[in-house]
Recover the amino acids of this structure.
DNA sequence: GAGATTGCGCAACATTGTTGCGTCCGGCGG
DNA sequence: CCGCCGGACGCAACAATGTTGCGCAATCTC
């Protein structure tokens, strides 16, 4: 993993439809070795996958909700039940166990508040919580999947 | 936008490297009209773009922090200054104005806690806050960019 | 300093993207 | 009831891109 790989990653995480020839030209390589680097980055899992990003509002799923959760039952059994409950709900796009006041933070994407309530009821039906608190996104000011690659520390 | 478009979108948001022929076969279409549908979805902005997803840990940027922010200055000028401050920080991957106890929620991606502190200092240098509270992700249980497309209400 | 290793570039071939055209189905007006 | 018209599909050809093998140069190792 050198500077070239980093530049390739940065190009691809902003535009995954770039051709190997495009990238080769921009990083100053010919297309075959560039393609092989991309291939290696995929096979080693540095590039997990490439996906299409859909405009949520264009498909009427434009409401994002952040839900914080507290549990009173800090057991492995509760955790497993919790994961089983939330992992397969497609509206739940992120689940983090976090430090601080709350125990878990969920990111939920739904068409509207009514649809959130359906998800909420499905949550509390599958699992016991000490507290569940929803915070609706009124305006998404920025949103990107790009990871900052300015940290030069990882030149192997 | 019909059922076929929805299936195409769902395939592409899980694997953007699928060829038009692959998708055509899975949705029961021949490749030309399928390609034209994909093209139309891109041109109308339903598909915003396709990107490569990078394993954060593979590039040593594996720490996610959720930062909630309160302001005492609810003015348009403050908002503009806030957006200017945070929008161009690459470590800040999401900015939401939210309902509830706090005013804004930021999602920040950094290599470690020290790097978060650098971002924090950059934040408070550019903008005045009533409160800033960080919550570190200790474990990412689920993470996806896929939007739930099970809502059949949008058959135009 | 010689051999081994790694990565690059060139060139050929396979696969996929892209376009034009003819056909079929469904809706609309005569 | 019939014929016209618009939209979407399928087929086939062509252009662009992905993919692979091979030879060469630079670097590292011993």
């Amino acid at each position: 993993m050198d500077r070239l790989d980093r530049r390739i990653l940065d190009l691809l995480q902003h535009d995954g439809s770039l051709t190997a020839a495009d990238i080769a030209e921009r990083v100053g390589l010919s297309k075959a070795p560039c393609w092989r680097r991309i291939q290696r980055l995929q096979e080693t899992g540095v590039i997990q996958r490439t996906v299409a990003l859909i405009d949520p509002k264009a498909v009427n799923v434009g409401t994002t909700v952040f839900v914080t959760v507290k549990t009173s039952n800090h057991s492995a059994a509760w955790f497993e039940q919790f994961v089983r409950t939330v992992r397969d709900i497609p509206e739940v796009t992120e689940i983090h166990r976090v430090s601080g006041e709350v125990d878990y933070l969920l990111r939920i994407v739904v068409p509207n508040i009514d649809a959130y309530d359906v998800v909420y009821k499905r949550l509390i039906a599958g699992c016991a919580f000490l507290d569940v608190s929803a915070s609706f996104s009124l305006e998404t000011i920025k949103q990107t999947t790009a990871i900052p690659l300015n940290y030069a520390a990882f030149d192997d």
Observations:
- Chain B has two domains: 3-52, 56-136.
- The two ends of chain B are 6 Å apart (CA to CA).
- The first helix of chain B runs from residue 3 to 14.
- The mean pLDDT of chain B is 95.
